[in-house]
Amino acid sequence: MSITYSFNGLGLSIVKVAAGGEASGTSTTVSEAQRLWRIFQAIGDIAFAYTYSTVLIEIQDTLKSSPAENKTMKRASFEGISTTTIFYLLCGCVGYAAFGEHAPGDLLSGSGFYQPLWLLNVANVCVAIHLIGAYQVFAQPIFSFVETSCRQRWPEVKFVTTDHQITIPFLGGTSFHVNWFRLTWRSAYVAVTTVLAMLLPFFNVILSLIGAASFWPLTVYLPVEMYIARAKFPKFSVSSMCLQALSFICLLVSLVAAAGSVEGLIQSLKTYHPFKNEA
């Protein structure tokens, strides 16, 4: 799905640049301060693209041997990160060439392109399928944590711990198990997050803020610290110091991205209208 809509956005951007005869660039309508804040926010958007670590262990846990799960995941991570980097850099650079500083937050539905309509519809269907699937994957660790914690805290409450068997009529006795707490809690979670997404429709700003908040602690700090502990590097060895320096640089990146996201959120709130897209 991602490759399909990325190809569409990239192709349409190339066509727009070719039709205009030249690439767009910086303009005088944006001050230097605004340009700097937008760069910081863009860093947060990039960081969000690399927050796969939140589901890395969940995915690895579902793999079968052989080859070993860690070897499979290492190759998948390398290929996934490489593909993501190539596509997003191309889309970012060519999209900027097509629109300059007036590039919409979403090239496919943010007043960027209007024709051909069928191609845009295909791309947006791919976006919807991608995000629906991603929502499920990213929500699973949250669901698991809450449900496990509740079972441990209230083991005597049947509403929380008991699964009920429900038979589907006219399907030859086919049945499935339902836990009423799981059904209620997950439905409420989806409803609340959906309403919040509609109520605060600052697409790029929110993505940037989430990316800034999760990038350093989950994608950099924890993996680096676990690797240092597992490899048993001496405290002031070259390898340990290099990894710590990398972690510190990524911390600065997250702080800069967070600052840009907060400033962008403040600016968006000045023209905020509930349930209206402000991409």
TrEMBL record:
GO molecular function: symporter activity
InterPro entries: AA_transpt_TM
Its job: Carrier protein involved in proton-driven auxin influx. Mediates the formation of auxin gradient from developing leaves (site of auxin biosynthesis) to tips by contributing to the loading of auxin in vascular tissues and facilitating acropetal (base to tip) auxin transport within inner tissues of the root apex, and basipetal (tip to base) auxin transport within outer tissues of the root apex. May be involved in lateral roots and nodules formation.
UniProt organism field: Linum tenue
Domain of life assignment: Eukaryota
Keyword Manganese on entry: no
Keywords: Amino-acid transport, Auxin signaling pathway, Membrane, Symport, Transmembrane, Transmembrane helix, Transport
Domain Amino acid transporter transmembrane: 14-266
TM ranges: 78-98, 118-138, 189-216, 236-260
Main location: membrane
UniProt record similarity statement: Belongs to the amino acid/polyamine transporter 2 family. Amino acid/auxin permease (AAAP) (TC 2.A.18.1) subfamily.
Recorded GO CC terms: endomembrane system
GO biological process assignments: amino acid transport; auxin-activated signaling pathway
Cellular location(s): Endomembrane system
Annotated membrane topology: Multi-pass membrane protein
Protein name (record): Amino acid transporter transmembrane domain-containing protein
Pfam families referenced in this protein's UniProt entry, alphabetically: Aa_trans
